[in-house]
Amino acid sequence: MAKILCVLYDDPVDGYPASYARDGLPVLDRYPGGQSLPTPEAIDFTPGHLLGSVSGELGLRRFLEERGHTLVVTSDKDGDGSAFDRELADADVVISQPFWPAYLTAERIARAPQLKLAITAGIGSDHVDLDAAIAHGVTVAEVTYCNSISVAEHVVMMILSLVRDYLPAHQWVLDGGWNIADSVRRSYDLEGMHVGTVAAGRIGLAVLRRLKPFDVHLHYTDRHRLPAEVEQELGLTFHPTAADMAPHCDVVTINAPLHPETENLFDDELIATMKRGAYLINTARARIADRDAVVRALESGQLAGYAGDVWFPQPAPADHPWRTMPHHGMTPHISGSSLSAQARYAAGTREILEAWLAGKPIRDEYLIVHDKALAGTGARSYSTRS
Ligand code: NDP
What we know:
The two termini are 34 Å apart. 45% of the residues are buried. The chain contains 14 helices and 13 strands. It folds into two domains: 3-146 and 337-375, Rossmann fold (3-Layer(aba) Sandwich); 148-323, NAD(P)-binding Rossmann-like Domain (Rossmann fold, 3-Layer(aba) Sandwich). The radius of gyration is 21 Å and the shape is globular. By secondary structure, it is α/β, with parallel strands linked by helices. Helix content is 30%, strand content 15%. It binds NADPH dihydro-nicotinamide-adenine-dinucleotide phosphate. The site of NADPH dihydro-nicotinamide-adenine-dinucleotide phosphate has 34 residues, from helix 5, helix 8 and helix 14.
């Protein structure tokens, strides 16, 4: 029987919800491009309910306990003596979400001799030391596509919020003001701007598709070029590297995984090549941008705005400089954890567990590491240090 250790974010401060704003979720047939939605044999939760917090338990308890497995759920994940550290010692499976990542460092993996499977209930497995997972034969899987569109919607929202300077205008309303001039002195139209994405995978391409009707000039860079018909349909300009693309753009959105190739990509040097007053949106991973270089660029005016929902570490400390830097539109890490996304990644997590517990193969597109090597999506989109 397996022990499954699940690290989830805390319940709302006023308690687990007794009711919801809407009665249900739209039913989707499949993801754009044709990949099927998660296909567990059954689910024991109500789609649209809060599943990603401790009391939601990703809807897994009944399924696991009926089969004799042990499920431990905690939000206590950091520091020596955390519940995560204590429970890890004999865990077979760790489930964690990027929003509240249980950092599976090389040291922790070394202290978890039973660990065979690390599931990301979401997308982005950089909180797992992939080299260590490979060395110890730990399979790493994530629910590919589950929240890609959720993030793409958040990116579009953040681009418009920054360019139009929405948040300060809203604040004037909350403060009882009617300050038109204050509200518009940094407000522009997106129309006609050059917008580029670093990576045109599931999220990046969805962002490009959603921005096309705004009559902007679209740019992208990626390790693999998109099909010519997609480039033509969206009027895309391809650039071989982020450094080639950045100087051409008024808005850059980062949609690549964090791995050795992308770590610290947006440093002082690269940001200095961008147009003065460009906007940078990063919902991918915080460490793709140099934390202090972003602050410096906002303070000097080199960047007109920065927004995103990814921080390092998570949760971000109260004195993290991105909380107080000028002209930012940061949220906590929420873009991929809408109630809609939660239903998909809870179902996908169950699908992965069903397969693994039955000794069946996990869908190739969910795999990041398997059989001591990058595999599936991991082999295509990630790199290792060695
Ligand atoms: P995909 O795997 O579909 O796309 C990732 C893309 O990044 C691929 O096209 C890949 O290229 C490309 N890429 C990798 N390295 C580079 C590089 N050095 N330069 C340019 N492109 C590169 O993933 P998603 O689009 O679904 O997600 C992307 C990332 O977004 C995730 O890894 C995660 O970090 C983040 N994310 C954030 C969420 C949030 O809540 N904020 C939620 C979900 C994801 P190729 O495959 O062509 O080699």
